[in-house]
Amino acid sequence: MAIGISLDEIGRARDSDVGYMRNVHPLLDLGWRRTDCLRYLAEQGLGDTPKSSCVGCPYHDDGFWLSLRENSPQEWADAVAFDHAIRNGSARADADGHPLQGQFFLHRARIPLDEVVLRPRPQPADVPGCGPWTCPHDEPATADTGRGEVA
């Protein structure tokens, strides 16, 4: 599995956790940083390529959510549906004796995604994005027993 992790995010590079797959990191092999990737994309006429990430990632900021809502209504609807579906855990976890304590939400304010007042903040252009098998965030998403405001 080729995974596009650059030198700026080398700590995210990991071996596969399944025996039938081997992860390779071509950008690391090339010695490329994010700026090298951006330069290459611009040279190929693809300078407007967005960062990749999972729609259901709980680490998205308000700028991402607002852009998704305004520019990708189907993906926004998918994210809202996923946010609703995870609220009380899963039937499989319950059946396995691992019921959810509290509630899960995609947004850090711990309220339903479609009820959040989105307040985007300016972000530096070089903030790493998530990928399908990696995420640059160290803090785990946690369940919460109630709704709350996050400053």
Give the helices and strands as they follow along the chain. Answer: HHHHH
Proportion of residues in extended strands: under 5%
- Helix count? 5
Q: Unreliable runs, pLDDT <50, ≥5 residues?
A: 138-151
The percent of residues in helical segments reads: 25-40%
Radius of gyration: 18 Å
Mean pLDDT: 83
Q: How does the major sheet shape up?
A: none
The outline comes out as flat
Number of strands: 0
Characterize the structure shown:
There is one protein chain. Helix content is 28%, strand content 0%. The chain has 151 residues and is mainly α. Helix 3 (62-71) crosses helix 4 (73-85). It starts with 25 loop residues before the first helix and ends in a 56-residue tail after the last helix.
Descriptors for this entry?
mainly alpha; 5 helices; flat; disordered C terminus
Topology:
Layout: H1 26-30, H2 34-43, H3 62-71, H4 73-85, H5 91-95
Helix pairs in contact: 3-4
Short description:
The chain is mostly helical and 151 residues long. 28% of the residues lie in helices and 0% in strands.
